[in-house]
């Protein structure tokens, strides 16, 4: 269980964060200089250099979005120009990519962050540039929403690259693309000029995910532990019936792949923030604000509690809570994770996503009413900073300028063996 720290002093956190952005800037420059985008997207490092892995191009938005965020954090306009130029030159195919469920990762990371910075006055107002980013986000949300499997009159989901039968945990984070497109006044125009609400599809997808991906300890099956997450849910697209849990990247359908768990925590926390921006009238068709918030909070809190309870003391998880080698580690939950153990890898990428989700969820609850909710919010907030504090220091933060990875000991795809494991 995470040993939640509330003694991380602001000055110490500031020091670690400054080191993070310093290292990040060096690595972004290195990738920009040495990596050829024509090869595809950078996926993971081999001997300190990023390489590609043809599967889906879901990481290219991170490559260019990282430069934009570097400017956001450190103020160096060279990174802004780097990210802005690459977005214009390289990201257009992602806007109309009908074959993936990854629009949030690619397009919100790039066009979305650029529009946000313009709205915040961080970059100069420019009419054509604003229109470009706005149009891009409108298109992205509609294209993502078109990838749709209906399982009932009022229920469906954006299906994964595995096909119409497949709902992924990851896709809750691409609901950001639908949210932005809807808030910019856009709709999906379907057959016979039928206008489809992007908010409707967002909420349907979130409800389907909460029902079939997240467990609540209610006896759904023999492995129904509150907060456990299946990476994938399989449906019969002919009649919409749910068939079974599955996994694309975890150890098994009946264990929890921790990066999938992290996507759920962060995705629902983000959508809770988004719901706060909507009017009561917009939410009335879905049962009203209270109903939607309660549903999203239920999934967010259950998964966040499971993460806290099923993760080693420092907030860094192993790649799957049911990985077979964990039994050889003894009481591994009672101490910090060991990234150098010989049995199972830790996954710092899961920790990075979960930390963001815990911080967002904590802030959401602390801003609400009710003493119990506020106290829970403080717990999630502290747990998020506990994991982040570990990530921002050795052995996870990589300050070696010769290595292009920012956070070490992350796992891309354990079952397929795509991660580079150095000798020894």
Describe the structure.
A hairpin with a 3-residue loop joins strand 6 and strand 7. This protein starts with 9 loop residues before the first helix and ends in a 33-residue tail after the last helix. Strands 5-8-9 form a 3-stranded antiparallel beta sheet, with no helix packed on it. Strands 1-2 form a two-stranded antiparallel sheet. The protein has a two-stranded antiparallel sheet with strand order 3-4. Helix 8 packs across helix 11, helix 9 runs antiparallel to helix 11 and helix 11 crosses helix 12. It has about 425 residues and is mainly α. The chain contains 13 helices and 9 strands. The mean pLDDT is about 95. The longest helix is centred in the N-terminal third of the chain and has 25 residues.
* Overall shape: globular
Radius of gyration: 21 Å
Number of strands: 9
Task: Name the helix and strand elements from N-terminus to C-terminus, one letter apiece.
Answer: HEEHHHHHEEEHEEHEEHHHHH
Distance between the termini: 28 Å
- Spatial strand order of the main sheet: 5-8-9
Structural class: mainly alpha
Helix-residue proportion: 40-55%
What's the short story on this structure?
The protein is mainly alpha-helical and 424 residues long. The chain has helices at 10-34, 60-74, 77-90, 92-95, 103-119, 127-146, 175-183, 198-212, 258-275, 280-283, 289-310, 348-366, 371-391; strands at residues 44-46, 49-51, 148-152, 155-158, 166-168, 188-190, 194-196, 232-236, 241-246.
């Amino acid at each position: 269980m995470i040993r939640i720290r509330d003694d991380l002093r602001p000055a110490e956190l500031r020091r670690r964060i400054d080191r993070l952005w310093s290292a990040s800037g060096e690595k972004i420059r290195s990738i920009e200089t040495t990596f050829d985008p024509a090869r595809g997207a950078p996926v993971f490092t081999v001997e300190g250099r990023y390489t590609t892995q043809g599967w889906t191009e879901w990481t290219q938005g991170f490559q260019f979005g990282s430069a934009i965020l570097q400017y956001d954090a450190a103020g160096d306009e060279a990174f802004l120009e780097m990210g802005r130029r690459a977005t214009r030159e390289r990201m257009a195919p992602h806007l109309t990519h009908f074959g993936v469920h990854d629009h949030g990762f690619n397009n919100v990371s790039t066009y979305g962050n650029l529009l946000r910075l313009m709205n915040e006055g961080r970059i100069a107002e420019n009419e054509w540039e604003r229109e470009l980013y706005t149009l891009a986000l409108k298109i992205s949300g509609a294209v993502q929403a078109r990838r749709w499997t209906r399982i009932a009159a009022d229920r469906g989901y954006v299906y994964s690259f595995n096909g119409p039968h497949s709902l992924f945990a990851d896709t809750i984070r691409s609901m950001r693309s639908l949210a932005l497109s809807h808030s910019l006044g856009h709709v999906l125009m379907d057959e016979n000029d039928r206008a489809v609400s992007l908010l409707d599809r967002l909420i349907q997808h979130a409800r389907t995910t909460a029902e079939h991906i997240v467990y609540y300890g209610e006896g759904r099956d023999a492995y129904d532990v509150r907060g456990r997450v299946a990476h994938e849910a399989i449906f019969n697209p002919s009649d919409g019936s749910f068939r079974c849990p599955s996994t694309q990247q975890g150890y098994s359908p009946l264990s929890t792949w921790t990066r999938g768990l992290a996507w759920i925590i962060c995705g629902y926390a983000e959508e809770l923030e988004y719901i706060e921006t909507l009017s009561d009238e917009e939410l009335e068709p879905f049962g009203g604000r209270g109903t939607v918030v309660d549903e999203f909070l239920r999934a967010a809190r259950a998964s966040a509690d499971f993460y806290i309870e099923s993760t080693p003391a420092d907030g860094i998880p192993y790649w799957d809570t049911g990985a077979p080698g964990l039994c050889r580690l003894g009481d591994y939950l009672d101490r910090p994770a060991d990234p150098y153990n010989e049995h199972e890898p830790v996954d710092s990428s899961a920790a990075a996503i979960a930390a963001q989700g815990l911080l967002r969820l904590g802030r959401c609850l602390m801003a609400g009413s009710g003493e119990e909710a506020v106290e829970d919010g403080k717990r999630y907030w502290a747990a998020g900073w506990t994991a982040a504090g570990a990530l921002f220091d050795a052995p996870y933060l990589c300050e070696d300028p010769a290595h292009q990875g920012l956070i070490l000991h992350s796992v891309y795809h354990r079952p397929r063996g795509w991660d580079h494991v150095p000798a020894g």
